[in-house]
Amino acid sequence: MEWGGGRREGNIEDRRGQGGGIGGVGLAGGGIGALVLAAVGYFVFGISPETTLNAVQGVQQEQPAAVEGRRGQVEDKAGQFVDVIETSNTDVWGPILAREGIRYTPPSSVVLYDQATGTGCGTGQAAMGPFYCPADRKVYLDLSFWNELESRFGAKGEFARAYVISHEIGHHIQTLTGASQEARRLGARGAESGSVRLELQADCYAGVWARHAPEASNGGIQITKADIEDGLGAASAVGDDAIQEQAQGRVMPDSFTHGTSAQRMRWFGRGYDSGDPNACDTFGARTL
Predict the structure, then answer these.
(1) Count of domains in the chain?
(2) Phi, psi (5° rounding) for residue 38?
């Protein structure tokens, strides 16, 4: 993947090196902020809601209050990559949603942090993986997660990382369109749940972004067929069935929150092949 010529708006809030901890909604006793993160906030990488809640409560006891991060351009390559991908999503989704009569506004920021940080949904922790908080409309990312992405899931290459970021921005788009509210009505667990439909739609939106990113960046971003294969590989690696099989040796569809490997690959591919968000209607789909 080539991205060095991509535009950077600097919609980054850099909290790295500042410590982290409690912010936004209170979490005493595993309150609503923790539940939001457990059910929605953690990305796709095999952390059960129970583990997430335990981690959140542990961080609550140990960490001081979060501090506002430095906003704007970042100097390190890893941070600049995040900036390019976030900016590219703005360039892609602005015109697409405008045709649907929806004004695209970017996430409030992409927050780069170490270990733990306060969010509008409660305490965020690196163990949760990347996540989007609808309460403050920010994407949260501990960049050490890229090592986990490669070592645990075998998802190598920069495009796998771009897929992760674009998936989280897909959740922001769902906040703008109202899909997040529909998902809550349908429930958070099970093979046909609102959570699964929400996550598969975000995968599809990541595919839509990948299809349009080169043109929207005037060639500043270049995505090859091999990159798309990396994206499909990442989607496959983080399916509920693959994660459960790896973690516990059996698959439990009643506890699915994100969809199977095959579903995740299929919906990412549908978004990429069509380039059309209307093809991403997981809530209207009879079969996932």
Answers:
(1) 1
(2) -65, -40
Q: Flag whether pLDDT at 69 surpasses 90.
A: no
Long-range contacts of 173-176 (CB under 8 A, 24+ apart): 173/93, 173/97, 173/104, 173/205, 173/277, 174/198, 174/201, 174/202, 175/134, 175/137, 176/97, 176/102, 176/104, 176/105
Using CA atoms in the order 31, 33, 39, 41, what is the torsion angle rounded to 10 degrees?
-150
Residue located via tokens 């990159």: 227
Q: What is the pLDDT of residue 190?
A: 82
101, with CB counted inside 10 A (0-12, 13-18, 19+), is: exposed
Residue 188 lies in a domain: yes
The answer to the question of residue 5 being in a domain is: no
Residue 177 pLDDT greater than 80, yes or no: yes
Q: Which of 282, 244, 283 is nearest to 264 (CA)?
A: 282
pLDDT at residue 176 greater than cutoff 90: yes
Residue 286, domain member (yes or no): no
CA 273, chain centre distance (Å): 21
* 3-state SS class at 260: coil
The CA angle 19-21-27, to the nearest 5 degrees, is 175
Residue 98 has pLDDT above 50, yes or no: yes
**Domain membership flag for residue 3:** no
Q: Is the dihedral of CA 16, 21, 26, 29 positive or negative?
A: positive
Mean pLDDT (the chain, rounded): 83
